Amino acid sequence: MTSPLPAKAGRRCHNVLNPLHSTHYFSPEFAKEMGALGLDGWSPAYFAGRSAAMGAVGAGTVAATYYNFKYELIAAHVPAIWESASPEEVLAGRLRAVDANLRRMLGEAVGSAEMAEAARLALTAAEACTRHARPLYAAHADLPVPEEPHLALWHAATLLREHRGDGHIAALLDAGLGPVEALVTHTATGKGFSVKWNIETRGWNRAEWDAAVASLQDRGLLDAERELTAAGKELRTELELVTDRLDAAPYEHLGAAGVERLTELAGGFLMTALGAGAFPADLIGKD
Length: 287
Known about the structure:
Elements: H1 9-22, H2 28-36, H3 42-51, H4 59-66, H5 71-75, H6 81-84, H7 87-106, H8 113-126, H9 135-141, H10 149-175, H11 179-188, H12 195-202, H13 206-218, H14 230-246, H15 248-254, H16 256-275
């Protein structure tokens, strides 16, 4: 019998694993590998890299699974990206980029006993993830587990990230938050992408952002200063609790001690990566 998980233990673990997965999207190694495949620019590289596990899908599938990207932005690149490179080529290029990126940021830690331990723990947690109604997770779960520990950890972090993300979309729908409203409320917490990065990467324009703000103000979720009201904070809290519940299985399977240890190890790797400039300085914030 494993000990009951402390409150939010799974979320805390996700909060260090998810950034470790995401570092490659902002890395020069990923831009180089995708550029070599004819996928120049952040959007085509991101759409190809994240959706390749699903095969040569169309814009509708990407819009459904990503949720908060504007369809017109997606359609400007998908399915044209598959004319430049096959999903198999993209997946191979992404793994090379992840390998180079992690080696550059983490140095000798990629070959450490701690890295191997973290990979084992994360893969154990991922054993309890479920495919049904989780398209991005299910697609990535069909990919082979890399042999090298740092890549195995990244692969497991990807599975756990997409598993939680698929459940989070269900929670957003239940909360009545559309794609832009979801972005606006997340940014208002101070933990999401800044307005600048949301507009530049998600495809929405300032008028659409402001319209979502007005809608949320009408619902009493944002105040005149675009800060979350008490009701808005309550909604975001409930949203995360629902997401936690839908994502509980992998962390319950790993157990309290395993989750604590994985959080500690992955948190250490993340701090090293952040120290190496893993993300743009203005990525997170309310402005």
